[in-house]
Fold:
Amino acid sequence: MEIPLQITAKDMELTDAIKADITEKAEKLDSYYDRIMRCRVAVECPKRHPHEGKLYDVHIYITVPGGEVTVKHAPNEDLYVSIRDAFQAARRRLEDFAREQRNDVKTHEEQPQGVIGKLFTDKGYGFLERPDGVEVYFHANSVVNRNFDDLKVGMKVRFAQEDGVKGPQASTVKVK
Structure:
């Protein structure tokens, strides 16, 4: 971190042990994203009715080149648990931010397209025909957005293909 860690507390006093725990966890964030410019941690214990017990909020603000990663985690009755959960969320967000910076974001392959080639409605299955002419088996349970009995030969579909025992089969079929 270029700027030292800043820890603030609202409506409570932080012990040295809590400050040390926060400092240790903040230093570990550098191993997930080494270009952190600043990290601010705000711990708060909002006033509540005495019968409701105390809840601790931990907010983390991390300044990085090109933006800020903010974590406002759900309050917890245990301050150490609240700190742990907030820093775990911050770690995940930093990892996501680093992936976006590297243009290393996962993309999903487009589902194959085809048409319904054969239907055996009395037996509950059919075959799709891919554009390259290969037939792909599908079961009635694979159809996700229509009733199997309403399908017609020639309908355009998208499907997820996998290897079956007797050849290619569709695990999901969506009518377009």
